[in-house]
């Protein structure tokens, strides 16, 4: 009987682990697609229609692929920074918004409008050389003014330039409006704000909290959120706050910390027992491992010794790792490495660096 219970717990743990990795892979795929959308938006060579189609298709994919029963996605997004900050933030606000909106059983069109708005809510901050976009930023005198006006600029770009729906444009215009009327740009309040306006404000607030608390994991973030919601209840919709905590507390085992940062760090590696150094570039790094790009051909389970330095201060020589993943993009081979250090020293050093790195960002 006791053995049976242990077995059940082990099965539960391994199911949870598999689900976490699936959600992490899913999130990585989402980041790649979202990055493409932002590149396409900035580019003067991409047609507007092509960008618009990409955005709509991606919003549909997000809605259809996110498993709303599997709350591990919340665990992932509260614990890692991945990709360009604006892209990562926009995607996370979209994911949180979709999770929250699902509790309100919105009609599909409204849900899609909200998902697109969340994905593009800060698009009014992206200045680009695309001549068709330059006029939107024409009379700005300072960065503060850009910060103040980005909801209006973004709202205009979404409806006039991209030709997306009026509802999407209005949600973007209002993503900083607060229920007590203290938000901007218009200071509108209460019943004038739709449930979508309230959701996007809360989702945006939540992801900013993730960043401010250095991706401390859901347990820590939940405590901070609770303090804010208790101290400023008039700013948030109470039903949204309740749904948010339902989702957070539905998570089990939310203690794992991923603090991954995207880098472009030159490094070298040697094959196990080899003497020749091969060049590579570290694409991202966490306490548990790294992803590297190299011209060399490696295979899963290969052992390698990786050498690199962080800001020229923390030097890592011949850290033993093994290849856990092998992927490709149009520029060549990318390998996922896991550090083999069991003492935790490597992890601790990298985490210290990442804490500093993230606190600067
Ligand atoms: Fe914003």
Describe this protein's structure.
- The chain is of the alpha+beta class.
- It folds into two domains: 249 residues, Hypothetical protein af1432; 100 residues, Beta Barrel (Thrombin, subunit H).
- It has eleven helices and six strands.
- A six-stranded antiparallel beta barrel has the order 1-2-3-6-5-4.
- The longest helix is centred in the first third of the chain and has 41 residues.
- About 1% of the residues have low confidence.
- Fe (ii) ion (FE2) binds next to loops.
How do you describe this structure in short?
This protein is an alpha+beta fold and 361 residues long. 52% of the residues lie in helices and 16% in strands. A hairpin with a 6-residue loop joins strand 1 and strand 2.
CATH superfamily of the largest domain: Hypothetical protein af1432
**Oligomeric status of the shown chains?**
single chain
Largest sheet: 6 strands, antiparallel, barrel
The number of domains: 2
Low-confidence stretches: 252-256
Please, what is the average pLDDT? 85
Inertia-based shape: globular
Instruction: Please tally the β strands and state the result.
Output: 6
- What share of residues are in beta strands? 15-25%
